[in-house]
Design brief:
The chain is an all-alpha fold and 273 residues long. It contains six helices and no strands. The chain has helices at 2-22, 25-80, 84-160, 162-221, 224-235, 251-272. It is rod-shaped, with a radius of gyration of 69 Å.
Length: 273
């Protein structure tokens, strides 16, 4: 028996715990209000029935009084007619209706008092329902605030947890890496562009050197005959005139002659100094 008793207690405790967890204050209070309103409706029905009974008894009481008065009038009429026997019978009926009227009067007074109590209780129930509505609104508001506060606290706990900040740190490192890669890409692009520009300028410089070399070659080649004649005239040793049928000098000979002429000109300047 001890085992079954403990098992029953365990089952009841588990059921009560499940019920407590399943209870929602707002839903429970709404249901209580629904039940109270239903009770109010039933109470109004009962009060209405009691009022109807009170009115019916009152009407019966009034009818019994009227009948008693009517038999009293009949007894008076019989007395005027000199018929005492008929008057006694009428008075006897009057007494019967008086007795009924008295009983109905007492019943009506009791019913009236009961109706007054029921009306008072009905007003009290109606007032309690209004008070319950106000309390329900207050409790529901408190419940909403508590739930909101709990949600905020749980959210803050989630935000303040290490895993959340670890995620932010990891994402920060990832963004830093992406920025570094973007800067490296930009720097490589600038280096390539600069290398391309340097190559273009070197090509231009090489072209300039070639142009200067060509110009120098032309300068050295063109004034060669004039310079040779001038130098020969200055030193009195003119070169022999080539025969008419001789072959024209080639470019190498012209260059050599120009260099020789410049060399003689330099020697002459040195001798003059």
């Amino acid at each position: 028996m001890g085992l079954f008793s403990r098992l029953g207690t365990l089952i009841r405790s588990n059921i009560n715990e499940l019920i407590n967890k399943a209870e929602d204050p707002e839903k429970m209070l709404n249901q209580v209000l629904v039940d109270m309103k239903q009770q109010l409706v039933e109470a109004k029905k009962q009060v209405a029935i009691a009022i109807a009974d009170e009115k019916r008894i009152k009407k019966q009481h009034q009818q019994a009084l009227l009948k008693a008065k009517d038999w009293e009038k009949k007894a008076m009429l019989a007395i005027r007619a000199g018929d005492e026997t008929l008057a006694r019978a009428a008075l006897q009926r009057k007494a019967e209706h008086d007795e009924v009227a008295t009983a109905l009067g007492e019943q009506w007074e009791a019913q009236k008092a009961s109706v007054d109590q029921l009306k008072q209780a009905l007003r009290g129930l109606d007032s309690k329902i209004d008070e319950a509505k106000r309390k329900r609104n207050i409790l529901v508001s408190r419940q909403k605030r508590a739930e909101a506060q709990r949600t905020i606290n749980e959210t803050l706990q989630g935000i303040n947890s290490t895993s959340a900040f670890d995620t932010f740190e990891r994402m920060s490192d990832r963004v830093t890496q992406l920025e570094a890669e973007a800067e490296a890409t930009a720097e490589m692009g600038g280096a390539l562009m600069e290398s391309s520009l340097d190559a273009q300028f070197r090509a231009l410089e090489a072209g300039s050197v070639d142009d200067e070399l060509e110009a120098l070659k032309q300068k050295m080649a063109l004034p060669a005959p004039k310079a040779a004649k001038q130098i020969a005239g200055d030193i009195g040793d003119a070169p022999p005139t080539p025969p008419a049928d001789a072959a024209p000098p080639n470019e190498e000979d012209v260059k050599a002659a120009a260099i020789d002429a410049q060399l003689e000109e330099l020697k002459a300047k040195l001798s003059a100094d």
